[in-house]
Amino acid sequence: MAAAYLENDFHATASFELFVRNLPRQRGYLLTAGLEQALDFLETARFSPEEIAFLRAQPVFTHVSDAFFDYLKAFHFSGEVWAVAEGTPVFADEPLLRVTGPIIEAQIVETFLLTTLTFQTMIATKAARVVQAAGGRGVVEFGSRRAHGPEAGVLAARAAYIGGCMGTSNVEAGFRFGIPTYGTVAHSFVMAYGDEEESFQRFERVFPDHAILLVDTYDTLAAIDKIIQLGMRPRGVRLDSGDLASLSREVRRRLDQGGLGETKIFASGDLNEHSIAAVLAEGAPIDFFGVGTELVTSKDAPSLGGVYKLVELRDDTAEHPRAKFSEDKVTYPGRKQVFRFRDPQGLYSHDIIARAEEKHADAEPLLTRVLDNGKRIQPSPPLQTVKEWTQESLAHLPEPYRRLREPAVYPVKISQSLAQLLEEVRQKTLVPRTSRGS
Amino acid sequence: MAAAYLENDFHATASFELFVRNLPRQRGYLLTAGLEQALDFLETARFSPEEIAFLRAQPVFTHVSDAFFDYLKAFHFSGEVWAVAEGTPVFADEPLLRVTGPIIEAQIVETFLLTTLTFQTMIATKAARVVQAAGGRGVVEFGSRRAHGPEAGVLAARAAYIGGCMGTSNVEAGFRFGIPTYGTVAHSFVMAYGDEEESFQRFERVFPDHAILLVDTYDTLAAIDKIIQLGMRPRGVRLDSGDLASLSREVRRRLDQGGLGETKIFASGDLNEHSIAAVLAEGAPIDFFGVGTELVTSKDAPSLGGVYKLVELRDDTAEHPRAKFSEDKVTYPGRKQVFRFRDPQGLYSHDIIARAEEKHADAEPLLTRVLDNGKRIQPSPPLQTVKEWTQESLAHLPEPYRRLREPAVYPVKISQSLAQLLEEVRQKTLVPRTSRGS
Hints:
The structure is a homodimer. By secondary structure, chain A is of the alpha/beta class.
């Protein structure tokens, strides 16, 4: 498409908006994440000589002139981006990002932006649900081995941290993003020594203040008794199998009786928001949860229907809003802003999706300009700030929209002016639908 | 764990095996993929000075001596790897990979190996199902925008190609792996011109032999009529919405009547193996399928229960097989081989998981040595060869195991010698289970 625009000398300024058409089942909101990586990409994306040579050799480009490859040689994103801050709850049809720039540039960056923002948003959302279920107990992201490749594991750790996790087992994510890292010990460590007591002592010797011992390699309660008999004082014990509710109660009882009231109970093993809520409802005295596969794959909803739609073209004379009307799907035309309103208690009450230039008193516009002339206007906020903003913004989202099952639908309205624009564009672009199949 | 082994002077040679405990629902087999990236990693993994400085600064390592960080400075994988060739069907409990080396090395590489092999295996398996459903019609992987981050999209394209896709829309995957790339045009291209006829002509002008026109931006059948009236001869048209069966029949009829019998019909839009099988069962004259989200996320089964288990320790005097007996899960001890047997027609009849040193006449051992002293024994086969091997090996897997729904369970047996070893190890490691909770 880039080549087709260039060869046809089509250089209008385009605005694309990235949004999610429908929330996945059981999700009352999405928590945005991934903007920092999206902006890193927009600031640095270039084509290498090797990549250009590769493209030039593709048969599909046989009839494409040198001008296109020269264009790629000089390519960099020179446009403007408006975005919703990471860690903000958003809803169906609300733009998370708006890209405005020469149409070729705005087109080339589409796929990277979509996959980056929707993946991290999906994981941050799942993390927020898991953390909510844990009700104040710490949740550590634990799922790298089951992520969709090594890099997905690192990005999932970042998104999970934004969503409220206290840290990750992914040390690379700690290195790259400064996320706190947590490790316990695997069954193989116990198996390597064969003797469980010896493995516990060997491990605690090296990590006297941090040892979290895995106690289910052979027999969980027997392992607890050994720890007590040995006079060890591990920071925690990890349960990775069995009935967590009853097992954790008995483990807690034995630890307390054995004078290990300070030793924490860490639980893991195919957990998700629902199983965590269930064991806690049974009164399980669990202090920390390690959540892996279900979190880093958002297993019950492993994709978001993210789209990147052309909403406006500008040439020297005018703006031309664009919309799509195929099927039952409508894409609202024009550059938009999302206005968030609060009730008298300060809680979020509803949003209005409006034209970008509208003003709505007493409402907070969610999209702010983050990139201009292809460069960040200011550095991305530290991850810690994003995490705090997540907590604050989720606390302002009323409970019905945060329910883990059957959440209420948050009210998102379309402004009068935007509705009017849609009608104007519809009149101009609509074709008779009588010849349509089926 | 690496630090704990080093500080305790524990340097036995360990063997770990990577396998999947249970096949996901509706999967009769898994198709292995990802070995090339796993071996690339094992040959090149190092710790940078910055990474080591980061680790040293972690509070958890306060009591860890310099010896550990010196160890990391010199770290490289020096061991041996046996693996099943990419593109081979495997089943639950069968090792895809066996790593033998100093225990610290073999432990450090665990997470990368798991995520790399299980992700690509999951996607290759899904691709094989989709390609099977398409019954000889071409399938293009189309899902980068919905993959779990940009890198997951590239790796998914590779795995999908191994699984039988004819190519990908991910140009980076084309560049890195030589996978054929295919593109069509997006709705935004049509919307940019506003006038559908003009957009079609502009596009075909640049790609006279390759244009696949997207015809559903406004009205599919009206768009087909325009193409015919304009005298265009596109290579194909793409249907992305609507009832694909009835719509494709009417599109085919109009194209044929209009003298465009050579123009192919390309279908896309949230397709998977079941929806493809359904439209083809309705007689839809579709030539190619573009499959995205469902393929690159393996949406109905977005994770594989891959594990990496310690199976043997060797010191100077003896081999010590290891097994795990917690819960109902058993890990078979010792280094293993998978022997695949054929029936008189040459089709795969059953497998036997056996001890590595066993011999089974008339059976093919699936694991071969691919890495020695940390280096590949020979270069990885070209992707094209892997793809051909996939086709050949799947053709030898009887149909009941390849069914898209309710596949039969392929017979995988445990050799007598391995069963005996399990019993010996069980006798040595079993602890009384009477104190077990719940």
